[in-house]
């Protein structure tokens, strides 16, 4: 074959490639706190998104389209999260965003997503993320207000009428404190002491000593996440406080028990999800097979059990995938509308049914009241 014929074949081959239709692709963005102070939340979230995208693509994608995941690590920095959200939309041209590991990063992403009219599914807890309702913002964890209500329901059952509160000053802690104070009176409970601590504080004994000394206090509630609740729990034990200690769903993970210490964490109660107690779920529980399948896949890939926070990412991607399938496309507006019509979708956090007025789709029945016994989570209701 001479040079001219070879060149002609190459030109023809290149022309054929150019004429061939490009493979369909859905571009999904994510800004997750894989590193930094919220890494124990974000690392399993990022692992879950990567694993699930691979599984979906291996099974043929969504409506025949492969998902291309563009994931950035914001390190828990709200400014970085905003920058990455802008980059995801303007440079990467994603059609939706999952992320916002923390309340702070979520709140910084929301205006960017709203302005661009891109669906955003947050993985953080504060009620402000979805209340008031924003057209393009959704979330998977229960709200902090719901956590307060679940805790106060349990306290009322136990006959507690006077409590002490200690809260982190971070976005989640401050929001949950506010929500708890707004609803506590509905349960006939009075807050006798109200203390706080900073995200980097390493000793909360002065605050706990103040609460311990309040007349009539029957239990103490810590509204917070990150390292703070573990420090509170250790200091609680060191001070010999025997009052019941309640924590928020922001620490519902095996990591909390490890950080606080098995002995110190014994007896701590908090509202959590089915994922933490999958083996204890009753046969016939709608969440049991979903939790079991996800746990098996995650454990096989990463050699460890998924955390509650990993489950938030699982549910976010499931909500998105379900909406894309029902919408018949990944068009942002069509997907947004489909997310609002999500009905009876079983996840690790609960059974999700959304409406235009409810961008969470969970109620208190999705929470399980849990207690740490012998270093493990148990169901106490």
TrEMBL record:
It comes from the Bacteria. It holds the Pfam family Peripla_BP_6. Keywords: Amino-acid transport, Signal, Transport. GO terms for biological process: amino acid transport. Residues 1-24 form the signal peptide. InterPro entries: BCAA_transport (IPR051010), Leu-bd (IPR028081), Leu_Ile_Val-bd (IPR000709), Peripla_BP_I (IPR028082). Residues 25-361 form the Leucine-binding protein domain. Belongs to the leucine-binding protein family. This is Branched-chain amino acid transport system substrate-binding protein. It comes from Paracoccus sulfuroxidans.
